[in-house]
Design goal:
The complex is a heterodimer. Chain A is α+β, with helices and mostly antiparallel strands. In chain A, about 30% of the residues lie in helices and about 40% in strands. Chain A has helices spanning about 20-30, 60-70, 85, 105-115, 135-145, and strands at about 5-15, 40-45, 50-60, 75-80, 90-100, 120-125, 125-135, 150-155, 160-165. Chain B is of the alpha/beta class. The longest helix of chain B is centred in the first third of the chain and has 15 residues, at about 60-75. Chain B has 23 helices and 20 strands. Chain B has a 6-stranded parallel β-sheet with strand order 3-2-4-5-7-6, with helices on both faces. In chain B, strands 11-10-9-12-13-14 form a 6-stranded parallel β-sheet, with helices on both faces. The chains are: A alpha+beta, B alpha/beta. The interface of A and B includes residues 1, 20, 72 and 78 of A.
Chain lengths: ~170, ~600
Amino acid sequence: MSGTNVRTATIAVLVENEAGVLARVIGLFSGRGYNIDSLTVAPVDEEGRLSRITIVTSGTEMVIEQIKAQLDRLVPVHRVHDLTMEGPHLTRELALIKVVGKGENRVEALRLADAFRARVVDATTESFVFEMTGNADKIDAFCGLMRPLGLKEVCRTGAVAIARGTAHMAA
Amino acid sequence: MSITAAPAADTALQSGAEVVLRALKDQGVDVIFGYPGGAVLPIYDALFQQNSIRHILVRHEQAAVHAAEGYARSTGKVGVVLVTSGPGATNAVTGLVDALMDSIPVVCLTGQVPTHLIGNDAFQEADTTGITRPATKHNYLVKRSEDLARVMHDAFYVAKSGRPGPVVIDLPKDILIKPAPYSEAPAPNAPHRSYRPVTQPDAARIQEAVRLLKQSQRPVIYAGGGVINSGPEASRLLREFVHLTGMPCTNTLMGLGAFPATDPQFIGMLGMHGTYEANLTMHGCDVMFNIGARFDDRITGRLDAFSPGSKKIHADIDPSSINKNVKVEVPIVGDAAAVLAAMIECWKSDPTPVAKEAQLGWWRQIDEWRKRDCLAYVQQGPIIKPQHAVKRLYEITKELGRETFISTEVGQHQMWAAQYFGFDKPNRWMTSGGLGTMGYGLPAAMGVQIAHPDALCIDIAGEASILMNIQEMGTLAQYRLPVKVFILNNEYMGMVRQWQELLHGGRYSESYSDALPDFVKLAEAFHARGLRAETSDQLDDVIREMIAHPGPVIADICVAKDENCFPMIPSGAAHNDMIMGPGQEKNAAAVTDAGKVLV
């Protein structure tokens, strides 16, 4: 058996946009005991026939190879790409973060939001909703800072990812 | 005929049910196995009004799928099943998973409540696509009439392409009744939108494999069910390759018949109940060529001790089977026949010298292992040894020279059948290998007999397994199918009893077959002939009478009750750690807790 080192993989999957395709992918992960750290999906072509799923998962090299092979043999799957292995790529996630508080905490929250380039998308005299895009680490860090300042609710999309440069995925 | 690339569309509308039957006919289907019910009445009505497709009425939907599997495995064609919604579909699930595990091409049509009632908990509604998603290779719910014909053809393509498997098409009743357009199947070479399995192997990998094998001092060829699924040409090429190379060949349970059992280069089945020589050859080899097998846990035993010193070549049509359990040096993705043809070609042209001397030494070692005669047993006295019953069945059928197909249920009798019945041709052996489904054998034999009306079809059974689908005796009677049920009756769930003896201190918890029916009377109640052999001197006569009788037969062979199936690699043990026979069971006492948790 090869090493037991666990790595994270960001996998992009291009699929037919048909009923049940997401259930097939999720069922594959739960049925075979693989991890899903995050998963996003939406149609990506003009006619709405193709959807792109971005899965962040972790496992040993052998497990990640299995995940890719298992995904690839699903009938409605067109392409599977391991972005982590294939070279430089961009990862982004959107988060909406609600902070409730008064006085100095409010001011501090706003100051930190500015430093992290989070936008205020809703405000009352006692609350803010910040919108933030970035990779998961940045959002984690921001949420950590907000916790003592009145963090009440976090909503995150999970990662979307794309390769840098001219390399691209097509059906 | 249309001359455009797109398949011809027939805009003249017929009912959805008629479209279903037309698609089946165009796919070359001549028989389907099914059971009617409310949601599929429109298809049964259309069946009634045509003559090209024959319907075989089973007695339970699970049996319909196993019958389709038997049909598929013995012919190489896709087996077709038709069941109703709700319980019809859920009863079929065991058969579907069985076909999935053993890579058998099956298309299963399930009825569904009308589209406007889906999700309303209607009568006989079940979420069939949800339930069967992990039980099939792929499934479909047809919600629009215009998709019906395309989905029908797509299902056949998916079922038989790449690694074959079961496919479900869920058909709401309104879709079956409403008019629907028909379109012909896409041309065989038209690329599928998303599913295009690789069948042609990479030439560089083939060359790498051939060079490894030529330089090998202790090679072995390990062939599995993929060779059989690929078609008879693959088995022919396997023979050619094995003879060309002079190497020893072992088959998995699913691969029996892919290489002739009577060939001197055959070293028997490998794995948990494989031969001493096959398992030690696997353990001691320096290069292993796996063609169409998947390093299943029944084969490998303890993974970290599996063939520790060998370089491994693995050819499989399913890339996810490669490097799943066992890390290999040379992965080859491709169809078994294509891989073997390329290997033969490359073997002939590649200048690498063959390590002939060393390989002769390897054969001398294998012959030493063979001398152990691991399948020997002693038949003396009146009590029939189960091994002897199978061996006599094999010898008598061979002597009669009739085309013979064997199916089995699951348990000790299955392993004895695999060990003592020799298969020289592919597609003659139907057994539930992956899922291990008791109740598989009788309906499977039924499907084989439908496909081969003049052949001798025998279900080697145990007295416990046979009761799991015994109702199919009714189907045999209705269609006058002369299937022979050969029961090795030891009044125990023998394999459970064996494990309890070896691993659980002889506490035979619930493994005794109490209150058994009188199988002779049972046969008679189902309009069949019932026979019984109680002593060894009756055995041959019963076998001959069973075969000679023109109709279905149950032969109740009363065998030794406490016989165990050897050799055996206890769970969690390595190939060189086999229990060879009675008196050696103490080895099993050394099975660790880690081994005990394995099944």
